[in-house]
């Protein structure tokens, strides 16, 4: 990756949070002492958050849908504040990019304050100039708006100057179609989507440590030629 600017997704790309999202409904019901239906995951895939709140109310959770949703969100927030860890080797990769002088930021669906808390706890926030959150814009990653906003704040003049690192195929496609240099990041949580992701991106990172080593080899070879 030889671009002067880089925009990183957070969940599944910088931090290993997807398993917590996957089990959030189950963990919430357990915390309330409610038996977990065998088909819970398949049911929740088809529901909005408010529908989830209403469904959990039908299972015996006290409170209206809005209150239940607030409690579910707080449970995930607690995970960000305490237990969500970094993707393996990501610190080494970020350090290698910083050595190259790459300017970096985060574009995430997660609340910016919460994302900052998580990344700061993990020692990763120091690599980024700022966090841009889709929660603030009201526009998700099916639109390139968040990437365009972040690129402009970093000072990029053209999207081709900017690498966008994503683990989700749909988000990588959005970035690519808007002219950004799309980089796919392997996430074991989305194993079944890796072939699709590889077909979208210009570059694919299967292992952050290997990618960091490759960046440093390139830098060393460049110095030798000077």
From TrEMBL:
It comes from the Bacteria. InterPro entries: HAD-like_hydrolase_sf (IPR050155), HAD-like_sf (IPR036412), HAD-SF_hydro_IA (IPR006439), HAD_sf (IPR023214), PGP-like_dom2 (IPR023198). This is HAD family phosphatase. It comes from Yanshouia hominis.
């Amino acid at each position: 990756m030889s671009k002067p600017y880089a925009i990183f997704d957070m969940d599944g790309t910088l931090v290993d949070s997807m398993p917590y999202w996957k089990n959030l409904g189950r963990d919430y019901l357990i915390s309330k002492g409610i038996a977990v239906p065998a088909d819970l995951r398949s049911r929740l895939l088809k529901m909005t958050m408010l529908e989830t709140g209403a469904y959990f109310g039908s299972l015996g959770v006290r409170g209206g849908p809005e209150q239940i949703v607030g409690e579910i969100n707080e449970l995930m927030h607690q995970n960000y504040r305490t237990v969500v860890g970094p993707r393996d080797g990501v610190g080494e990769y970020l350090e290698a990019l910083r050595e190259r002088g790459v300017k970096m930021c985060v574009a995430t669906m997660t609340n910016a304050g919460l994302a900052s808390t998580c990344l700061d706890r993990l020692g990763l926030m120091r690599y980024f100039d700022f966090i841009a959150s889709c929660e603030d814009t009201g526009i998700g990653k099916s639109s390139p708006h968040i990437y365009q906003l972040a690129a402009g704040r970093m000072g990029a003049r053209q999207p081709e100057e900017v690498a966008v690192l994503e683990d989700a195929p749909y988000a990588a496609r959005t970035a690519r179609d808007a002219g950004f240099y799309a980089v796919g990041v392997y996430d074991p949580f989305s194993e079944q989507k890796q072939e699709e992701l590889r077909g979208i991106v210009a570059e694919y990172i299967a292992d952050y440590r290997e990618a960091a080593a490759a960046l440093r080899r390139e830098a060393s070879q460049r110095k030798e030629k000077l």
